[in-house]
Amino acid sequence: MGSGGGGVVKDVGSKAELDEALLGATAVVVHFWAFWCEASKQMDQVFSHLATDFPHALFLRVEAEEHPEISETYAVSAVPYFIFCKDGKSVDTLEGANPTVLANKVAKLVGPASSVESASPASLGIAAGPTVLEVVRNMATQSVSSKTEEMNSGLSDELRKRIQQLVDSYPIFLFMKGSPEQPKCGFSRKVVNILKNEGVEFRSFDILLDNEVREGMKKFSNWPTFPQLFCKSDLLGGCDIVVAMHESGELKDVFKDHGIPIISKETEIAKNSESPIPEKSGDISESTGLSAEVASRLQTLVNSSPVILFMKGKPEEPKCGFSHKVVEILQQEKVAFDSFDILSDDEVRQGLKVFSNWSSYPQLYIGGELIGGSDIVLEMQKSGELKRVLAEKGVVPKVTLEDRLKNIITSSPVMLFMKGTPDAPRCGFSSKVVNALQKEGISFGSFDILSDEEVRQGLKTYSNWPTYPQLYYKGELIGGCDIVMELQSSEELKSTLSE
After folding, report:
1. Contact indicator for 344, 317 with CB cutoff of 8 Å
2. Which end of the chain is more exposed for a tag (fewer CB within 10 A), N or C?
3. In 128-285, beta strands by DSSP E
């Protein structure tokens, strides 16, 4: 293939051909693409322009699904995907459709960025058109627009703009339950306390007051639970991530890197000296209106059991639907818990509202900390957050990643770890395997590895298989897309998954 491509993109026909090209050229850029992927088609245009303007580099294309042995060698699990090679060695990669980054990486690999600027319009096949950088910028704008539309799918333009305005309205912005002065769940309270401890000013939005924003935020940020913390319009994460970043010192570094001013402890103390705000709901001040005796009794009650539910009635005979719902959830999670019937003691019933700053029942406490009412407990169960909290508090044993993976793998006789869902695959390889299984009439379970980074990374080590999808039968790894396709073409797929 020579030392350069002469301004032409060349298609690779085999792994041997690619290996030979990498050894024979100083600078090589390889584009892994798929015919079904619109982003691949868009990036192919950029790739062709760059090949014209960097004729001394070699620009190669690999049809990712037609050459799975090459894709797996370079751990390609999504398209478009690019590898950048210098003197026969891979020195950089790029996943996804980002024209500007691609152009910058090519310029860095081949030589000064000025060589891009000097490209003649004619070399682009455009009579008197823009330079390659302008083409790239135009495509980048389209790419960002497309990405934004995809991210905010299901949101009206009006709601999207409203949420974006909120996110952009202050450098540190927290979507929470309640307000910083009156948090309505333990997780929101925890993040508020961390931000105060870090000494940063922030603004917040109470998602309990606006269900449209509450539901819209889940789609906007692709994050299912609250609170959600944003820094300079970028999502940092929820409570567990903020806690981990705070404990490791990473949160302070993020604020520093983004130029967030830190309020000194002395300033904060002086500012709040006249009206101190208690950090926890259990701290007593004169403003609570609770006597020391009642406050002490409530403190004892919330800590009387690792898990205690203040409810109407008893677990075996709840006196309201909300209490019944939380009892059911705790039983489904097989959690041992104590309860207190607030209908039997008006002092506790009224006092706990003030003590916890939570106006309704039931109220669930884990490890002495208020979790919330029925809607929050239900939301936490659906997201898996409840199980994590119970494990963190030592109420249930912590499940190791290996045990968790084993449980998921064996949750169905035929189990597919894929990108997306069978109804909406997020990559062509996953789509191919789903179609093969459905064509053979094989019922199977699936797990979207894009929804859980711990599983996504952990399974690669557990199975010693670097890419997705991964298909399992009765707990044993069958293989990835190419193996499933081979089994299907040899008519062995159905028999292999029914032995």
Report:
1. no
2. C
3. 172-176, 203-206, 228-231, 234-237
